[in-house]
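Replying to the earlier thread about multi-chain prediction with a worked example.

Input:
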Amino acid sequence: MSKLEEIWMTVSVGILVIFMVIVGYQTYALGMGPPSHKETIDPQKVEQTAPFDNPGLIDLGDNKYELVMTLEAFAFNPGNVEVPVGAEVEFTMTSKDVSHGVQIPGTNLNAMVLPGHIQKITQTFDEPGEYLVLCNEYCGAGHQAMFTTITVK
Amino acid sequence: MEQAKNVGFKENVLSKLGVNPQDAKISLTYFTISFATLLIGGLLGLIQGLERAGLYSLPGGFNYYQVLTAHGLLLLVVFTATFTIGYQLANLSHSFNGLLLKVRKMIWMGIAFKVVGVVLTVTMIVLGEASVLYTFYPPLAAHPVFYIGLVLIVLGIWSVDFGVFINYRHWRRENPGQPTPILAFFAMGVFVLWFFASLGVTIEVFMIIPWVLGWVETINVMVTRTLFWWFGHTLVNIWYLVAISAWYIIVPKIAGGKHFNEKLIRLVVILLVVLNIPGGFHHQIIDPAISTSIKFLHVFMSLSIAVPSLMTAFAMFYVLEKAGRKKGGKGLFGWFKKLPWGDVRFLAPMIAMIAFIPGGAGGIVNTSNQMNQVIHNTMWVVGHFHVTVGVSVVLTFFGICYWLIPHLSKRQLTPKMNKIGVIQTWIWTIGMTIMAGSMHLAGLVGDPRRTSDTTYAGHDTALSWLPYEYVFATGATLLLIGVIIQVFAVFNMMFFAPKGKTEYPVAEPEDNQPKVPMWTERWGLWAIVLLAVVAMAYVIPIVDMIVNAPPGSPPIKTW
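Result:
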């Protein structure tokens, strides 16, 4: 191995190590890890299982909310939710049928929602407006029609 | 030096024997299937581009997701695999002075399996029984025949796999103490990786078949997803390994240089084979049911692939700079101008290599936790793999056609065909730059992938994506023109170009190179290391997914 190549490889591996340190710092120190909730649920009994037997927005006080939501081909339930500006919303979601994905363009909210698994992700809405909430995993013939909105005002 | 003599001797023998006609027939059959598939797959790609931009709508009875399933499957599984096999077998035949008779039989059997498999899967897609996309995530459940077709495709690959292993062992036994020619070493890497990659998807499909037939009621969704990506991402790196076999060994010869230190080339091949499979996990970074610690481990395991890639980058610049300086290139960049830019056999793989710089950088974004969350399932990802597969891999494949096909068909690459190739390469490059570039940008502002129509009842955010989608369609149009030219070139060189002899451009080592270490040939050991790395990556999460599994999902058809 030539001298130059040794330098190149040392610098390259060094950059990768620094990169890992940054990703690790963000994940563990700043709590920015990806959505990875581990609770499970019977995908054929979602409607009978709490909290999904009663989906909706729960006011936790202090401008904090929990949004219990079910996803199915091709709808979000509940749809067209309204929250006040600055609300911190924890989404608690599961699928009643196939794999779905939830994404709110313009935010970093992006998570897979799979049958049998409960997924959680939190988003603070600081700007008022009507946010588009869409399914970003192919779920069938009507996939393009699977969307709703969250209005922040 | 000894090595150099060996290569020289082999070339002499080959120039007397020429191409083995039976092996040439095998490779040309694969290329015929490959480029017929490219034509259909490319056309389907344009249809999607136009439909998504709202410029065209499919006739009744067909829909976007059917076309998308066919486009993905035909191009990702059929086009690339058949090209890979055709090219790797040609390398093997060239290195070993012809394949064994029984290996040839196994390969023909492989072709038969593959063709039947493809016909079955495609028929199900056309009938609307399998609009499940390339990933076919359960609980989406296609017609059982679709999965049986997939099994046959895998069997087709395995027949070739085992044929290659047998031929390799035979050669080693006939040539004791000698390292295999470097192109054959690459072929071993490709087929070893292919075998272990396809194990994941094979287990998955054997979980699915009893489930779609109703023999078992439910399926574990997370396990099937994970097994899919075991295969799905490794496939990407199989193409990459195929492409770099040309970058390391073929391109330097065309540029008038020598190949890089063979020990390091072999090390890159081994690293790519053993480190690869866990990379699949970064497709599941925002899944539930996998802990953040496991995901963090997988960021590291995915990124480890960057090490052999960066070694490759160094090697290529080293080799090409030397070649350019030998031709009189002066100063810091003078050598760059001396490279044979007018030769399609060089131009196409060179652009492919350059494209790997943004492609690799985008890959680092995709594999890291937080940034993945921004781009997951957006058009960014589609842009990414059109740069990596669509340029880095496919342009290398196209470039190979211009010497390998005339070599096999005992014809010539005429100056006119070279010019057509150069024009094709530029059309392809411009088309992909426009299309993949705008896809990356659209993804950053949230445009989701795999969606037929992203207007969402006229929501403002959604409407902001439309201009990008017109640009996708423009790029896709150029690309279809590129496909048509390429398919024309391939069949012209196969059947109509003037008769003659075309060189097989295999670079030689530089002078005074050390002997190639024989420990690199220990494929049994590399397979064990590969399995150990796979175990490190998969045992904990898969056991967790099985032990803590929710009640499973029944088959569901939502199309």
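Chain B is about 70% helix and 0% strand.

Feel free to reuse this layout for your own posts.
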